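User: My instructor asked us to take a sequence, write out its structure as tokens, and then describe one feature of it. I'm not sure where to start. Here is the sequence I was given:
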Amino acid sequence: MGWAKLLCSRQFDPETTTRALQTIERNARLQTQLIGDLLDVSRILRGKLSLEVLPVNLVSPIEAAIETMRLAAESKSIHLETTIEPNVRWVMGDPGRLQQVVWNLLSNAIKFTPEEGRIEIRLDTVGNQARIQVKDTGKGINPEFLPYIFEYFRQADSSMTRTQGGLGLGLAIVHHLVELHGGTVSAESPGEGQGATFTVLLPFQKRDSRPDEPEDTEAESSCTAPSTLDLQGLRIVLVDDELDTREFLSFLLRQHNAEVQSFEAADSAFTAFAEWPADILISDIGMPQEDGYSLLRRIRKLPTDQGGTVPAIALTAYAREEDRQKALDAGFQSHLAKPVNSTELLNTILHLTRNQS
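Assistant: Let's start with the prediction itself. The structure tokens for your sequence are:
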């Protein structure tokens, strides 16, 4: 927030501006991670965390997690060593959640490994199970704490002078996600200062089926080169009652050559359809006076030439699996959770318009 305030009040040289923006993004990602962990724990405790299960080649989520954490490792001069046994059979699971498992284990290892340390990520086979191991040369685990390492809000050092942040949720979430996949996770350490090894075992799928295309689970990396996706000629109606979100999305879409009309209320957006037929509707769900579901029901009653069959994207903070299903049942073709991944949004728009044509 300090850097944001400075950027609003004065001009800096490009190097300082870049450093400020990187700091803002890094901390926003940390905040998003903490909130995401808290939401996951809430879902777990209520028994509401579900998986979207399909055949998964574990190489994909492992490589995506490594790529996401590579910069963090490089900033501490930590050497990442990957060993992947060829022809490891596929498992049945949720690609995104499996990436989250590896990401959490790798993030934990980087956090507790000193500079110029080493982390080994291994994928191989043990009996009829796939084994993922993350082994580090970090500070290790006290034998007295080892039995509690996968409990919620538990940290080996919970003092006010501890050197590491976090809420003590990452490993607890890993434990629950692995169990949901029918697997097990364990931790070993010779003792403090001697590193640690986390081992995940996942059962192989019973049928040797393959999806037509591998899941793309790679997360949007920090400060990447601008996307080259082109929305030239597409007319987009955007509805969101939050000004900051509306302005950012309008700017993003126009940067990729789309024509955009944005509205803060559902009623105004509905009126626009008769005069300005759009190729895509992007709508928030929770809005004052009239929500996104009601707006889409009204639009679906219009003739086709007035936008009645327009592809619609629900872009909302209501991010539970039941919320996604409710949006699809209401007639939205896609459901994207806030905070929006810009590349995912652009790809979704192009996918829907191609299918429409």
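For the description part of your assignment, you could build on this observation: Residues 235-356 form a domain with the Rossmann fold fold (CATH 3.40.50.2300). Try explaining in your own words what that tells you about the chain.
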